[in-house]
Amino acid sequence: MTDILRSRGRVRQRVRDLEAEKVGLVKRMEVLAQEFQQAFRRPWPAHPVVQRIAGGHVYVRWRCQGRNGKQNYVDLAGEAGQALLSALEPPVQRIYVRYGQEMLNLNVAHALRQSEWTRLRQYLGDCVVLEGYAHALKNTVGTKVGFSLDLG
Predict the structure, then answer these.
(1) In this predicted model, what pLDDT tens digit does every residue of 3-21 receive, in sequence order?
(2) d(CA 89, CA 74)
(3) 33-56: buried (b, 16+ CB within 10 Å) or exposed (e) per residue?
(4) E strand map for 9-89
């Protein structure tokens, strides 16, 4: 990671790469949810949905059946998820667990990229602010500013 931080151009490229990776992951989440809905007939005890949260966070989650926005989300690893699974036939349980594992993988992959994207954008913004300070101080009589930060 320290090599990336030596060049803001590389950091900006990494931000663009992360944006593309996040888009790809969201598409995979959407495909997973659509595949489930096409493979199983309603009513489902729970089905995968893609949830977008402020700040760029995106998750694919199990949504329980219900109406008018009153549906709860369920985590298959939690108590409610275990109760949901135990009410299903074993072949259906296996399918739900397989989908749940893929959902978990997609969620953590997106969350890691979102976190790195956020930190790198903050880094770039902070660099701009500090350069502004350095430029302003350079014009101040009797002040010498200049240093190099080597993180490697």
Answers:
(1) 555 688 899 999 999 999 9
(2) 18
(3) beebeeeeeeeeebbbbbeeeeee
(4) 46-53, 57-64, 73-74
Q: Is-contact 81 75, C-beta < 8 A?
A: yes
| Residue 126, CA distances (Å) to 8, 12, 46, 122 in order | 11, 13, 44, 6
Tokens 């930060």 correspond to 149
- The partner residues of 48 in beta bridges, in order of sequence, read 62
Q: Is the pTM of this model over 0.85?
A: no
> Per residue in 33-73, pLDDT tens?
999 999 988 888 999 999 999 989 999 999 998 666 667 89
Q: Are 26 and 50 in contact (CB under 8 A)?
A: yes
User: What is the domain partition of the chain in residue ranges?
Assistant: 2-136
Reference 85, options 108, 61, 62; nearest CA is 62
